[in-house]
Design goal:
Blueprint: H1 18-41, E1 45-50, H2 56-65, E2 69-74, H3 78-82, H4 88-102, E3 110-113, H5 116-124, E4 132-134, H6 141-145, H7 150-160, E5 167-172, H8 181-190, E6 197-202, H9 208-214, E7 221-224, H10 232-238, E8 241-244, H11 259-264, E9 269-272, H12 278-283, E10 288-290, H13 295-306, H14 311-326, H15 330-345
Parallel strand pairs: 1-2, 2-3, 3-4, 5-6, 5-8, 6-7, 8-9, 9-10
Helix pairs in contact: 1-2, 8-9, 8-13
Pfam family, one: Glyco_trans_4_4
EC number: 2.4.-.-
GO molecular function: glycosyltransferase activity
């Protein structure tokens, strides 16, 4: 594919009004290019992605001129997250603006989003339920399962100064406020008497510097840089236990994108969150969930996850995590999204073959996406 890059305004740190200015500047900068490409190429289908929803009006307007169908793929409820961002008159103004922006979704012929909870939120803002289709983010779970790489693992151990007998508690992904990295540092502080484990945090993000400062005096914490995409399977297999702390303010609407890889690795998973959220209902007993904002509970759950199970229990745990991971597999989810896109482009009613958060994958049949001019498997 050809990627066209458009200007936008950024600064460090992205706070306050700057968080609105960045997507607004992208919407303004990309609008001429989007309109030109749609009018020139006259596609049958235009796909927009949220965020940023502010870029959608130009695409929808141009699509209507050439009689193209429009689909919105919602990864994050951008306007809803903005509601309450501020106090007094500022909060009321942001809330009113967010409501107006949310109405833009009604102009799409179909909307794909990540979870039943996000679908209910979209319907609450007036979007017809017949236009909402539920498919979570996907990952190639088989590639993760086959990702064990002893050479890379040894290199990471040498880079981080980890002993051969020490076990790895891994938190991999963006280091941001949503995933509460400082909570993990506080849990590591409570586990510093354990010489047999090391907490490894791999990634980058706006809170990496704060995390490094918080963990500067902890000998049992190691920070690894953001790894290339091809190293992801080996990194996930590098762990003995995966941990994913979360800020409850961001909890409840969708499954974090890093979750699929953690489950596909087969390793035990520890997560902070509430059992009655979308995440809690999906995971069930396949992960250890502990109270948010509770470093002691997180430390205890990590210690429990590192306690060896009997072989039968360990095998059952791996099998249960694998079945959950298959629900998020690329072959399943991406084919479902493609079904929606093709049906909307043909102006047909898409089938309701959708993902359910409480389902259990038992049988998975390999499928191929066949396109004109292509003979290779996806």
């Amino acid at each position: 594919m050809t990627i066209w890059r458009c200007p936008l305004v950024l600064r460090r740190p992205m706070r306050g009004a700057w968080r609105l200015l960045a997507p607004l500047s992208f919407a303004i900068g990309s609008a001429p290019l989007v309109i030109w490409r749609i009018l020139r190429d006259r596609p049958s289908l235009v796909v927009c992605v949220e965020p940023t929803l502010l870029a959608a009006p130009a695409a929808v307007a141009a699509a209507r001129l050439v009689r193209a169908s429009c689909v919105l793929h919602v990864h994050d409820l951008e306007p809803e997250a903005a509601v309450g961002a501020g106090n007094g008159w500022a909060g009321r103004y942001v809330g009113a603006l967010a409501e107006r922006v949310a109405r833009l979704r009604r102009h799409f012929d179909g909307v794909v989003t990540l979870s039943p909870a996000m679908g209910r939120e979209l319907a609450r803002h007036g979007l017809a339920s017949s236009r909402i289709h539920l498919w979570p983010n996907w990952i190639d779970v088989r590639r993760i399962a086959r990702g064990h790489d002893p050479a890379r693992a040894d290199a990471w151990r040498r880079e981080a100064g980890i002993g051969d007998g020490q076990r790895i508690v891994l938190c991999a992904g963006s280091i941001n406020r949503k995933h509460a990295p400082l909570l993990l540092a506080n849990a590591a502080r409570l586990l510093r008497h354990r010489d047999d484990l090391v907490v490894v945090i791999a990634g980058d993000g706006p809170l990496r510097a704060d995390l490094a400062a918080e963990a500067a005096d902890l000998a049992n914490v190691r920070l690894l840089p953001l790894q290339p995409e091809e190293a992801l399977p080996a990194l996930l297999q590098f762990a003995d236990v995966h941990v994913m702390p979360q800020d409850p303010a961001w909890d409840g609407l969708a499954l974090p994108s890093r979750l699929a890889g953690m489950l596909a690795s087969g390793k035990p998973v520890v997560i902070t969150g509430n059992a009655d959220t979308e995440l809690g209902k999906f995971l069930g007993a396949t992960a250890r969930m502990c109270r948010p904002h509770d470093a002691a509970a997180l430390a205890a759950a990590i210690a429990q996850a590192l306690t060896p199970d009997c072989p039968v229990q360990a095998r059952r745990g791996r099998d249960a995590r694998w079945r959950k991971a298959l629900l998020l597999d690329r072959r399943r989810c991406l084919n479902g999204v493609v079904d929606v896109l093709e049906a909307v482009a043909a102006r047909q009613k898409p089938g309701r073959r959708e993902w359910a958060s409480g389902a259990t994958a038992r049988v998975v049949r390999p499928q191929m996406i066949v396109k004109p001019g292509r003979t290779d498997a996806p």
